[in-house]
Amino acid sequence: MEQRTEQSQASRRQFIRRTLAGGLGVSSGLGATEQGATAQTTNPLRSFDHVSVPLRDTDAMLSFYRSLGFTIIEGPTICAAAFGDSKLNMHRPEFWESGTFTLRAPAAEPPCGDYCFVWGESEEALDALLARVGADIIEGPAPRVGGRALGTAEGTSRYIRDPDGNLLEFIVY
Known about the structure:
The chain is α+β, with helices and mostly antiparallel strands. The chain has six helices and ten strands; from the N terminus they run αββαβαβββαβαβαββ.
C-alpha cells in the first residue's frame, strides 16, 4: 500500500509538471528541456490563481494557516488561505463529502496536497516562524530546483505537514 501511495504521489507530481509545462519537454521533473523552455515562453499561462483541496479538520487547518501568516477567508462551504495573488481553497467536509459537489477530483480526500510556497525573507526568519507555530521540519534545509526561471532556478527548501497531513514546502531563492 505504501508503495502504491508513493507511486500515486509521483504520478500526481509528474502530471502537474507536464500540465504546467504545456505537456512538452519536462525532463526528469527537475527542469525544463530546451524544447519545453521554448514552448513555455509563448504560453499564455502565467501563474496559479488557486488550488483546491478537501478539509478534514476545518478549525485546526484555518488556525494553522493563519499562524503561518496567510489571510483566512471563511465561507459556508469553502474557506481559503490567501497569500499574494494566490490562494489555497479548502472545501469544508460537509461540502466535499455531500455527494452533490462534483467540481472536484472524485478521489481526493485529505491529505491530498503537496504545495511549495516561495518564502520572501531569510532562511533564519523562516526557521523562526516554523518554530513559533510548532511545525516539525521533516526535511531540510535541502537544495531543490523550483519553479522560477522555467523550472531551472535553485533554492533551499524546508518541508512540514499541516494538520490534515498535506505536505508543505517552503523554498528560499
